[in-house]
Design goal:
By secondary structure, the chain is mainly β. The protein is built from 6 helices and 31 strands. The strands form 6 sheets. The protein has a 16-stranded mixed sheet that branches. A 4-stranded antiparallel sheet has the order 4-3-8-9, with no helix packed on it.
């Protein structure tokens, strides 16, 4: 018997979690609806398990209602079970348990890889909608067959060690490309960190962040400060000193340069997180030596080096292309963000050239976890896919958005950057790798995923004739196995839906004529996920 033969069973679960006590008001910049789904991948010999929904809205000024729905999908995508409910939200956070018996109707669920999907919306707020999904294992499904793949050398493994014969000629560097310090609204001591800090009020600055991340084994840390907080506020300070704001940004750049020079093999980067959440969207700019902004003080002085209009993403992309800068879409929402000509996630050619990364997963921004075990994790694959379908050429990244003093320590996720063997890790080689999209996103710092297409490396764009062989190359130095493989296919500029092409790690097809992109997603036997960068193929 297979699950595809079972009729959908739709019980309703109406639960309301206990509300936490009120916390100090959060910064307006972080007043957004947050919803995460924790779905344990394995359950042991008894298949029953408990899913956990976490809802939060930092600084919520009046009570709200979260309408949520959780579905369990069989292998193949058919909805088998549905839970739904309403949850009152009037404190900083609330958790809702969703128990599952491990059964479909009266029968135990057959073995296989299932998908648990969350849809949550804050009532009355059309843009406050969150969707995310995770795979779970039921029983002991057979492991997929994988090609032999020697892991690429890690920068911190064995210095000077020769790569394995026939290995790809790259070294993997692991980084956290999204974090804050006390130059904006981060950097608080863990014991006092309840959320974002008033700008420039916390204890720890960029130097402390770089030292902490290096001590925790990271190769790269980006301090990406909110560009509109250099006046010491988040909404504007009429008496602020414009020269001091510009000098603070330059001091951050100097601190990163000095730390990198003093610690070869570690790359400290300082940049900005441009934009606002409300009717906006956050973009990391990794390599700008100019502070961009739109705020002025009472004397009309710009609180930045270069004027950029708030919310004007098309003009920002043009400036980035002209300057040669590279960017990342941070925690993208599917609606209401990155609007160009009235279109959310809108495409421009300048943006396509400037934007290289899409943050596909991060651990919660206000985590105080230092054991890499944070369970509140958000996934943005659906929004990244919409950007890919719009025409953007983006690799996936996975970061932590740390606002507390635990840079890179809240979970095991990393962004992996491939630098040619023998080339030093520098700002220039990092930017070159991002522009080539030689990047993969991983929730496990000990695992690697590299996609090739007819021997061409992920990130490449090429024209193809005849068959196309896609290979998802996986390696784990931590002993993890693969539970599920998905080779995904989409069409740039179509604005459609990315679909699963194959569940095999090696797949040969003859694409239809025209433009396509493909990427690999792998779920490990512990539930951690890896995403390769896409390849872009024009089939003749």
């Amino acid at each position: 018997m297979t699950t595809s033969l079972l009729p959908p069973i739709l019980p309703a679960l109406w639960l309301c979690g206990s509300l936490a006590a009120a916390a100090p008001a959060a910064l307006a910049e972080h007043r957004e609806f947050e919803a995460t789904l924790h779905a344990p991948f394995q359950s042991g010999p008894v298949q029953q398990r408990r899913f956990l929904l976490d809802f939060a809205y930092p600084g919520l000024e009046q009570a709200g209602i979260v309408d949520w729905r959780v579905t369990l999908e069989a292998p193949g995508g058919r909805v088998l079970l549905r839970w739904q409910g309403q949850t009152a939200l009037k404190g900083p956070a609330v958790s809702v348990p969703v128990p599952w018996s491990g059964r479909i109707g009266r029968a135990p669920a057959p073995g296989g890889i299932y998908r648990v999907r969350l849809h949550a919306a804050l009532r009355g707020e059309p843009h406050e909608v969150v969707e995310q999904d995770w795979e779970i294992a039921v029983g002991a499904p057979p492991a997929p067959r994988l090609p032999r793949f020697e892991p690429l050398p890690r920068a911190t493994s064995t210095p000077g060690a020769a790569p394995a014969p026939a290995a790809l000629p790259y070294t993997v560097y692991l980084g956290n490309l999204h974090s804050q310090t006390n130059h904006s609204d981060g950097g608080a001591e863990l014991a006092a960190c309840k959320g974002a800090q008033p700008p420039q009020s916390a204890r720890h600055g960029p130097e402390a962040a770089f030292a902490y991340a290096r001590e925790r084994g990271l190769d790269i840390l980006v301090a990406s400060e909110h560009n509109h907080m250099y006046d010491g506020s988040e909404t504007g300070a009429p008496q602020a000193d414009a020269a001091a704001a510009r000098a603070l940004y330059q001091s951050g750049l100097a601190a990163a340069d000095a730390f990198s020079a003093a610690h070869p093999g570690f790359l400290a980067l300082y940049g900005m997180e441009w934009g606002v959440i409300n009717n906006g969207g956050h973009i990391n700019i990794f390599d700008s030596r100019e502070l961009l902004g739109w705020e002025t003080n009472a004397r009309g002085e710009l609180m930045a080096d270069t004027l950029t209009a708030r919310g004007d993403y098309a003009s920002l992309y043009t400036l980035m292309r002209e300057r040669g800068w590279v960017g990342q879409f941070n925690h993208p929402a599917q609606t209401g963000q990155f609007i160009v000509n009235g279109v959310a996630l809108g495409y421009t050619r300048d943006g396509d050239e400037a934007m290289a990364l899409c943050e596909v997963m991060n651990s919660t921004a206000f985590s105080t976890n230092v054991t890499e075990t944070e369970t509140r994790r958000s996934q943005f694959e659906a929004a990244c896919n919409r950007l890919l379908e719009a025409g953007y050429h983006l690799a996936f990244s996975s970061n932590q958005d740390n606002h507390c003093a635990n840079w890179g320590a809240s979970y095991t996720n990393r962004t992996a950057v491939l630098i040619p063997n023998g080339v030093a890790l520098t700002r220039a080689s990092f930017v070159e790798a991002l522009k080539a999209r030689r990047v993969f996103a991983t929730m496990d710092r000990e695992s690697q995923l590299v996609l090739t297409a007819n021997g061409r490396l992920m990130g490449e764009r090429f024209t193809n004739r005849g068959p196309l062989t896609l290979v998802a190359n996986f390696a784990s130095t931590g002993g993890r196995k693969v539970a599920s493989v998905a080779l995904m296919e989409g069409m740039p500029g179509r604005g459609g839906t990315v679909t699963r092409l194959s569940s095999s790690a090696t797949t040969t097809i003859v694409p239809a004529p025209g433009a396509h992109f493909y990427y690999a997603r792998i779920t490990q036997d512990d539930g951690n996920v890896l995403w390769s960068a896409p390849v872009w193929v024009t089939q003749e």
